[in-house]
Design goal:
Radius of gyration: 23 Å
Strand order of the largest sheet: 13-21-14-20-15-19-18-17-16
Length: 473
């Protein structure tokens, strides 16, 4: 019987966001709790599904913790999670291998890379035991991560639709070691380049062609995994950048040469990266969208995208809709999804259907925007929405409907609209705090624009105050 220790910490930490990600932001599952909650952690579910029909394998579940992307993680919280991870490990049989579901760009106050810190401690305590990891496509690969792991594999889709498959892939490589006797080798080539997130959508060139190269390599009998790990552009972090990564069945020369091949392919198309949607300054994106006759038209507030770790309380676009574009906005039905503002939710929830003045936004992002006072009516409150049990407040002004949330969550799907009873197909303009649209929104969007707003997830990377020199795309 082989013992497989499984666990993972999953967070994308935006160093330009002043919010410190805390306990209330995380979903934490310890030990066997993961089996009943694997839908909330799809990489973990992929690992579990691979091993469920392997009678010669026993899973040792440790700590699984994940949160919506946000600012760096509270140091005390991280150390407490890590302590629990090793406490559970000490109570279990000696593992034969570790299979981890990591993000790769989780950063902790004062410590930096959480993955580097966790892997280092595992390796110190279990120096001879292999470590396999699945990763997000936007992981930041450090030299020590390469030193401490036997094999890693990243997502191949953006938007990310293959988290489960990536967990399964990582588990498959682990099984090749413990049951098939393969001594895996990993080759990596670092490319000192940062790509704006919305320029790397995998349904469009050049990423579509680069991902095809990965699949082509993985058809080789001796290659177990091939990945482009793009780094996380909204982290001013040491060793950030693109990594070409290849895992083989014991052939280091093949791993190294294949990683070099992938790096060369990437550099050959480096100048071809661009936005997959029409991209304009915020006022121009909104004006163009408001002039469309099809519906619904989407505008992504890309500089304040909480799924990439922004504050989610930037008021730039609603300031435009209630200010210089107000006259045009009043001729259209508009929904803004939304604003993270727990204070505004409390102020509005007990005054439903009353005309009130409500200050919203600008509580966390004090660099790029200011709070905005709106006059309107709180129409509806929905409690305990989604995995994070957020409260949603629907607030109506003369220019737009605004969804205000009590927790820092993503605005990623129609479930939020349905919970509030909104007939979203009849809305002319839907403004979302996103970059590229999710599959939910792609399915209903008649047209979409990218607003190049300034914020913690600015798509114009040259406007961000990096302390290090990067080749910015």
């Amino acid at each position: 019987m082989k013992n497989i220790a499984i666990g993972g910490f999953f967070h994308e930490s935006n160093t330009f966001n002043p919010i410190i990600t805390s306990q209330e932001d995380f979903l934490v599952y310890c030990g066997a709790e993961i089996y009943d909650n694997s839908e909330a952690y799809l990489q973990a579910r992929g690992i579990i599904e691979f091993f469920k029909d392997k009678p010669d394998c026993r899973l040792l579940p440790l700590v699984f913790a994940r949160a919506v992307p946000n600012g760096v993680v509270d140091k005390t919280l991280y150390l407490r999670l890590k302590e629990k991870f090793f406490q559970l490990l000490d109570e279990m049989p000696q593992p034969d291998i570790f299979v981890l579901a990591l993000h790769g760009s989780m950063r902790v106050q004062e410590l930096g890379s959480a993955e580097t810190d966790l892997l280092a401690e595992i390796k110190f305590s279990y120096p001879s035991i292999p470590i396999i990891s699945g990763l997000d496509m936007h992981a930041t690969i450090t030299d020590k991560m390469l030193q401490f792991t036997t094999a890693m594999v990243g997502y191949k889709t953006a938007p990310h639709l293959d988290a489960l498959e990536t967990g399964y892939h990582a588990a498959q490589m682990a099984y090749q070691i413990i049951s098939e006797g393969h001594a895996l080798c990993m080759g990596a080539v670092k490319i000192p380049c940062l790509i704006a997130g919305e320029k790397s959508e995998t349904d469009y060139p050049p990423m579509r062609g680069l991902i095809a190269e990965l699949h082509k390599l993985e058809e080789h009998d001796e290659i177990c995994a091939a990945s482009y790990i793009l780094g996380f552009p909204w982290a001013d972090a040491e060793e950030n950048g693109v990594t070409a990564l290849v895992v083989t069945k014991g052939d280091q020369q093949l791993a190294d040469s294949s990683a070099r091949y992938l790096a060369q392919k990437f550099l050959a198309v480096r100048q071809n990266f661009g936005f997959s949607s029409p991209a304009f300054a915020p006022q121009d994106a909104l004006r163009l969208a408001l002039q469309e006759t099809c519906k619904p038209v989407f505008v992504s507030d890309s500089g304040d995208n909480p799924t990439a770790g922004s504050t989610a309380d930037n008021t730039t676009l609603i300031s435009l809709l209630s200010g210089e574009l107000a006259e045009l906005a009043r001729t259209r039905k508009i929904l803004v999804a939304g604003i993270y503002d727990p204070v505004a939710v409390v102020a509005g929830k007990d005054r439903l259907n009353q005309v009130i003045s409500l200050e919203v936004g600008g509580r966390f992002d004090t660099k790029y925007c200011r709070p905005l006072t709106l006059v309107g009516r709180p129409l509806k409150l929905v409690a305990d929405f989604g995995l994070h049990k957020a409260s949603l407040l629907l607030f109506r002004t003369d220019e737009f409907d605004l969804i205000i949330t009590s927790k820092h969550i993503g605005f990623t799907g129609i479930q939020m609209f349905e919970a509030l009873g909104l007939d979203y197909l009849l809305i002319d303009l839907i403004v979302v705090k996103l970059g590229y649209l999710t599959e939910d929104f792609k399915a209903i969007a008649a047209k979409s624009y990218l607003a190049l707003s300034q914020g913690c997830t600015d798509e114009v990377l040259s406007r961000l105050a990096y302390s290090r020199a990067y080749d910015l795309v």
